[in-house]
Amino acid sequence: MADAPGCGPLRRARQSGSLSLRQRIYEQVRSAGRISRAALAKELRVSPGSVTPPVSDLLAGGLLCELQDEGQPSGRGRPPVTLGLNARRGLVAGMKVSDHEYSALLVDLAGQPVAQATLPRSGADRSVAGLLDDVATLLSRLSGAAGHGAPPILGAGLGLPGMVDHTGGRLRWSPILAARDVDLAGAVSARLGLPVSVDNDANLLTMAELWFGRGRSLSDFAVVTIEYGVGLGLVVDHAPYRGAHGFGMELGHTKVQLDGALCRCGQRGCLEAYVADFALVREAPIALDGALPPRSEVLETLYAQAKGGNEAARAIFDRAGRYLALGLANVANLFDPNRIILSGSRMRYDYLYAAEMLAELPGLTLNTPPPVEVNAWDDLVWARGAAALALSDLTPRLLA
Ligand SMILES: [Zn+2]
Questions:
Q1: Rounded distance from Cα 228 to ligand 1 centre (Å)
Q2: How far is the CA of 252 from the centre of ligand 1 (A)?
Q3: CA of 40 to the centre of ligand 1 (A)
Q4: Cys-Cys crosslink for 74: which of 64, 79, 167, 328, Cβ 3.0 to 4.6 Å?
């Protein structure tokens, strides 16, 4: 979590010109945590007088509140007052589905965590009906954990692996569900009785970085995740880039070798076919001399062997690292980001981002490559990103 107070992207005035002044004020207060009227006008580059009517309106509507400024001496007359978000106006839920587990987080409108919950998931049940039952159970666990007297839940964000059209709310395909091309946001929304946004898991990580992480102050950055596949999230001008069809970017299936290794997608030469789990496991029998552990332990064993000096095992991770450098260089050449953030639990396999691998970047990029930062979040980061998604989509509705 960032040290800065507040949450949400730290936009500059020129970068939020298309929004109403009312929404710009609300978002500025949210990202600052607390701010005086004078500082607010200065940040938004408008006259102090012009913020007065919308601020009064937001105060009357219970969206903003006035805070006594504890840091200032009160002096004569009234103590100085700053504006803050009325965080208790409502809550949003962020939920992440993986093949074996659900994780969820309830946050207030200022992004502060209120409750969390997890639920095991049967990977064998690949039905939408099962998912709806589980999500309803998860939400009631969150409500129970928040306790009586908690503010109302105003919306939810749900993330899952696969091809998800955030704008249309449709799930095109997911490895964890049998159904194809379903109105998932509509189905979950009907079940929970709440507005629901859906997105793919790489975009959730991107939202977590943009709202709560190191990406808050960056205008343009890329988040690369390596788990079962290789995902890319891109932020352009402080907002997630979603492509024409809302699918996000399939970095894992960009080609890095013509007629190369076979990928799970059926095509050849994809980055994922050299960097993802299955790519490392494919060569393991040779490095481990045929002594294969159970499938779930292959990667850990291979990693331990590489650390222990097994040259063949090390060569597998070394090649994956070099291909990862190639993938990152392609991202840098295409998008010129301020920074590339490597995110996800795979980051513990440090061969993949060893200094010698990243040292290859300058030889693969035309300009000085952007800083590459490794961010190994905990498991709740996905739910946090889903909560950011819900907050982001709820904001215009709240202010309408
Ligand atoms: Zn592929």
A1: 12
A2: 6
A3: 48
A4: 79
Side chain identity, residue 119: L
Edge-to-edge strand order for the sheet containing 101-108?
A: 113-120, 101-108, 91-97, 153-160, 196-200
Question: Model confidence over 257-294: pLDDT tens digits?
Answer: 999 999 988 999 999 999 888 888 898 988 988 778 88
- Tokens 């007052």 sit at which residue? 81
Beta strands, E only, 176-298: 196-200, 221-226, 230-236, 239-241
Going 42 to 2 to 353 to 385, the CA torsion angle's sign is negative
Say if CB 238 and CB 32 are below 8 A apart. no
Q: Which of 304, 332, 326 is nearest to 316 (CA)?
A: 304
Output the six-digit token pair for 172. 């095109």
What's the alpha-carbon Rg for the chain, to the nearest Å? 23
Closest CA to 188 of 131, 121, 254: 131
Sign of the dihedral defined by the CA atoms of residues 304, 309, 312, 315, in that order: positive
Question: Could you tell me the pTM of the whole model?
Answer: 0.87
